[in-house]
Design a protein that fits this description.
heterodimer, A: 262 residues, alpha+beta, two-stranded antiparallel ribbon, flat, B: 279 residues, Lambda Exonuclease, Chain A, five-stranded mixed β-sheet, three-stranded antiparallel β-sheet
């Protein structure tokens, strides 16, 4: 893929947060001091050190914050625009967790909810979200990819790289090749995307490895959706809406009350 | 036999049917999707081919499970079709054997259950009926409704028969006999017997036949004293995994039928790793 040889490809990028979605900072639980979120998403043209809006959202600082967060979670969980896993009263805890994750990495709650998959019980980031988060970070230049080797061969692969904005140092990630994907067994799973879209998977995996080394505070130690699928064994088909379960707690309440469910 | 001459699909229109006899429902047919067919092809297409032509042998455990299902879901039928066979002692003795044969002759039309099985089933039924959730779950519904539909993606005919369908609650119930109904043990049972695949397939069956359900409950009943009852439902992740397995297996089945090829295990040298629990 000659066009990928050390070119300045436009990185995969989600919408940069607007002023309204600029993340809210963390609060030091001991002192109550407001701190900037690590890797906070701020527009690139804002200067370093410029403080984000000083309003805390951490739900676990005190009772008032928790109650405020609960009200916000209730409002979000009643929206039909949020993904299924966050809808309804029974999923309010999921919304609270998404709010906490959003606060930790400095992203909007809606972005987190739309970018977090739970696969086999493991929360996982979508790779494009992770890349967008790095791209919007004030610490690094947007992620780029440097391809090497002959397309289709086991040596074909790429590294992700970005520059540290402060020092100018180039931060280069691990080399991900098709040979590695085969050796790790990622490419041999049934329905593996490594067989059908290897170039995309090389970039996604290179970005995931890069983030783990240079900006682990953005991934919070979680794998990407693609990595989780590769290691858990098979492709995950999206469950149709009609097959999704209702709330067991609501059913039990209804059974005990003798009411007929609607 | 293929689905074009399968009695379930030739004698009944697609949809929900309350009174399909066991022999018709359980008839196996090439390309007919059921939980049993998916279990077979999950091993390999070769195993599926063997399953088609060599029906499982009946075992005392299977007969016990059938009798309990009948007792809990269709008590009137159980009362007329089953009989408790007394213990005649050592039937190598001529007089004992004669007494047993005479009893069997006079109960020729019934299904004979050993007296201790009969007693265990009575205990189990009482345990479910007195369980504070069990008794609420197994009421106002229909037992053994046969559901048939065509899989949209592959065109294959599909069949499912939920134990108990409570339409007013959009709830499907499966009654399972087990040695250990605790959450921990039953989760392993779900994985072993692929109940998550059954859950997804049956939810799909209900949705495709206009009976979409929100809830799929497993009422697990222990087969020995104290005959404890526990009610389980699978989380969304488990249903998602079951759905993925079902889709992969249905597509594999469609592909094998189309090619008329039923290969066994892939012909490679397979490097094995030890399971994680081995020291």
């Amino acid at each position: 893929m000659s066009s990928k040889q050390d070119t300045e490809n436009a990185p995969v990028q989600l919408a940069t947060p607007s002023a309204e979605t600029t993340p809210l900072p963390l609060v030091d639980p001991a002192t109550g001091e407001v701190k900037a979120s690590p890797g906070a998403l701020v527009p690139h043209d804002e200067g370093e050190g410029q403080a984000p809006p000083a309003r805390a959202l951490s739900a676990f600082v005190d009772k008032d914050s928790f109650e405020t967060a609960q009200r916000m979670a209730r409002a979000l969980s009643s929206s039909s625009l949020v993904p299924e896993a966050y809808r309804g009263q029974s999923n309010m805890p999921n919304v609270m967790i998404a709010m906490e994750l959003a606060n930790r990495i400095g992203a909007s709650v809606l972005m987190v909810m739309q970018s977090l998959d739970v696969i086999h019980g493991r929360p996982s980031w979508r790779a494009q979200f992770l890349i967008a988060t790095v791209n919007a970070s004030s610490r690094f230049t947007p992620l780029r990819f440097r391809f090497q080797g002959k397309e289709g061969s086991d040596d074909w692969g790429c590294r992700a790289w970005a520059k540290d904005r402060e020092s100018g140092e180039e931060c280069t990630g691990a080399l991900i090749t098709m040979g590695l994907a085969k050796a790790e067994g990622w490419a041999s799973k049934a329905g593996s995307k490594w067989k059908t879209m290897p170039e995309q998977m090389l970039m996604y995996r290179a970005a995931a490895f890069w983030t783990r080394i240079y900006a682990p505070e953005l991934s919070l130690g979680m794998q990407t959706t693609e990595e989780t699928v590769d290691t858990t064994g098979y492709e995950i088909r999206e469950t149709p809406e009609a097959l999704r379960p209702g709330s067991a707690a609501d059913l039990e309440r209804s059974l005990r009350n003798g009411a007929t469910a609607q | 036999m293929t689905h074009t001459d399968h009695p379930l699909f030739t004698n009944f229109p697609l949809g929900a049917h309350p009174n399909v006899d066991n022999a018709t429902y359980h008839q196996r047919g090439l390309g007919v999707v059921s939980k049993g067919a998916l279990d077979a092809i999950a091993r390999s297409p070769l195993h599926y081919q063997a399953w088609l032509t060599e029906p499982d042998k009946d075992t005392p455990a299977l007969a016990f499970g059938r009798a309990f299902h009948c007792a809990i879901l269709e008590p009137e039928r159980f009362a007329t079709e089953y009989a408790s066979e007394p213990d005649f002692g050592d039937c190598r003795k001529k007089e004992n054997k004669a007494a047993r044969d005479a009893w069997r002759e006079s109960n020729r039309a019934a299904v004979w259950l050993p007296a201790d099985d009969w007693e265990a089933i009575e205990h189990m039924v009482r345990a479910v009926r007195s369980h504070e959730l069990g008794r609420l779950i197994l009421r106002d519904g229909d037992p053994e409704v046969t559901l048939t539909w065509l899989d949209k993606a592959t065109g294959l005919p599909c069949k499912a028969r939920p134990d108990y369908l409570v339409r007013s609650r959009r709830m499907c119930v499966d009654v399972k006999t087990t040695d250990d109904a605790s959450e921990e043990a039953f989760a392993r049972t779900v994985a072993k017997y692929r109940y998550h695949v059954q859950d997804a397939l049956y939810r799909d069956a209900c949705a495709q036949t206009g009976e979409a359900v929100e809830h799929f409950l497993f009422v697990a009943v222990e087969k020995t004293a104290p005959y404890a009852v526990n009610v389980h439902t699978l989380d969304e992740d488990a249903i998602g995994r079951g759905y993925t397995r079902a889709r992969i297996e249905i597509e594999l089945l469609a592909d094998c039928v189309k090619r008329n090829e039923f290969p066994g295990y892939p012909p490679h040298i397979h490097t094995l790793s030890l399971p994680p629990w081995v020291a």
